[in-house]
Write a structure and sequence with these properties.
8 strands, TIM Barrel, alpha/beta, 43% helix, eight-stranded parallel beta sheet, single chain
């Protein structure tokens, strides 16, 4: 099994990174994809330490929409920052997480959009997939992805959107990743959508340290706990956890080519 989206470079893991990695491997994880904030030297350093512990670990690098305001005067500088960091990290496999977040609006929407477009263009140039964050911005997100055309590959991470968003993403050839939210008792609509996502387009993730699944909800999340999300998804689809793990692992390899 693979945790397709986690934040092991977050400083909440600094004190026990080796133990977190050990628990993930003991849980049967083949690898994880660690998301890095572009231009953050501390995260890059911790990712290097994690990679030394777990050489199969891979990373994605991007400017999150919350941080897009740092490039308000020059959106293309965001792409330059990402390009330089991807070039330094031989184990980088994607651009992300990138996208639009109109829930918090920590960055002006027009700045988010410009920085998003610049990074999508970079992904197309480098022939790398994108890891998409979208919250309360479905129409603009899909418009941007459609504008990029079918050469763009990627995944909508931590999916909590509408059935319409899922259908649009699938039509574009994207994958959809589910996190611990799908295990929450009130996530009935999300589980209905999750049940219908084609098995060959499905990924699983933790988004750790956030969104710990049931039965660990409310605590610090970590990659080993992706198994609980996998168990919920397998039960929804009436298949074994082993079958779901095989499918989502194959999907990760097809998208990220690790």
């Amino acid at each position: 099994m693979i945790d397709s989206h986690c934040h092991l470079a977050d400083d909440v893991y600094a004190a026990d990174l080796d133990q977190v990695v050990e628990r993930a491997r003991a849980a049967g994880l083949e690898r994880v994809l660690v998301i890095l904030e572009a231009g953050n030297p501390q995260e890059e350093k911790q990712a290097g330490a994690a990679h030394a512990l777990w050489p199969d670990l891979r990373v994605a690098v991007g400017v999150h929409p919350h941080h897009a305001k740092q490039f308000e005067k020059d959106a293309l500088a965001a792409a330059v920052t990402v390009r330089e960091q991807v070039g330094r990290l031989a184990y980088a496999r994607a651009i992300g997480e990138i996208g639009l977040d109109y829930h918090y609006d920590f960055s002006p929407r027009e700045v988010q959009q410009a920085v998003f477009r610049a990074q999508v263009d970079l992904a197309l140039e480098l022939q790398l997939p994108v890891v998409i964050h979208t919250r309360e911005a479905e129409a603009d997100t899909i418009e941007a992805l459609k504008a990029a055309g079918h050469r763009l590959r990627g995944v909508l991470h931590c999916f909590t959107g509408t059935r319409e968003l899922a259908s649009a993403a699938l039509d574009l050839g994207f994958y959809i990743s589910l996190a611990g939210i799908v295990t929450f008792p009130k996530a009935l609509e999300l589980r209905d959508i999750a049940r219908d996502i084609p098995l060959d387009r499905l990924l699983v993730e933790t988004d750790s340290p956030f969104l710990a699944p049931v039965p660990h909800r409310g605590g610090r999340n970590e990659p080993a706990r992706v198994v609980h999300t996998a168990e919920t998804l397998a039960a929804l689809r009436g298949i074994s956890v082993a079958e779901l793990a095989r499918a989502t692992t194959a999907n990760f390899h097809a998208l990220f080519r690790p």
